[in-house]
């Protein structure tokens, strides 16, 4: 039987590695397992764990009559965007003080990567992006779909089980001019290994 759907010619996307690992762990009969494949901590029953401070804030927000479910401004909540700029640059940075730095609120990390990729390609003409090796799988796909050549910089040294800071710095030093470099500010995905404050400087 043939399908008359307008979507019948759409090919199924390949399985995302993290999702496949999630299913493999879920189907593993071993009773004392903890599934850490999708970046969400779950208990032994497979339920997402609600962190106490998050639960407390949800209750506080539910009881705050100044919060509503109205549409946000097109760039997001201004106080949230400003807090992000302060966190990134510092409250004494000239670009923050002169209000020449801007920010937008996005739908998660991959949404932010997508918007940045499109903006930098469309308005600045950037065509090369560097992502860490390894990186979150969606990042390569996002940049590729926006017409970038995607390259990798060294990040994780699997032999020594540590950050390859020398390889990282060398690769970025030799990166093509006007390239986009994706750096995970914290909780590097998928290694969990972050740069120290000294390494950032």
UniProtKB/TrEMBL annotation:
Cofactors named for this entry: pyridoxal 5'-phosphate
Cellular-component GO terms for this entry: cytosol
Ranges where the Aminotransferase class I/classII large domain occurs: 32-200
Superkingdom of source: Eukaryota
Record flagged with keyword DNA-binding: no
Keywords noted in UniProt: Aminotransferase, Pyridoxal phosphate, Transferase
GO biological process, one term: aspartate biosynthetic process
UniProt xrefs under Pfam families: Aminotran_1_2
Enzyme Commission no: 2.6.1.1
One example GO MF annotation: L-aspartate:2-oxoglutarate aminotransferase activity
InterPro entries: Aminotransferase_I/II_large (IPR004839), Asp_trans (IPR000796), PyrdxlP-dep_Trfase (IPR015424), PyrdxlP-dep_Trfase_major (IPR015421), PyrdxlP-dep_Trfase_small (IPR015422)
Subunit annotation: Homodimer.
PANTHER family tied to this protein: ASPARTATE AMINOTRANSFERASE, GLUTAMATE OXALOACETATE TRANSAMINASE 1, ISOFORM B
Family the UniProt entry places it in: Belongs to the class-I pyridoxal-phosphate-dependent aminotransferase family.
Protein name: aspartate transaminase
Lineage, uppermost ranks: Eukaryota, Metazoa, Spiralia, Lophotrochozoa, Platyhelminthes
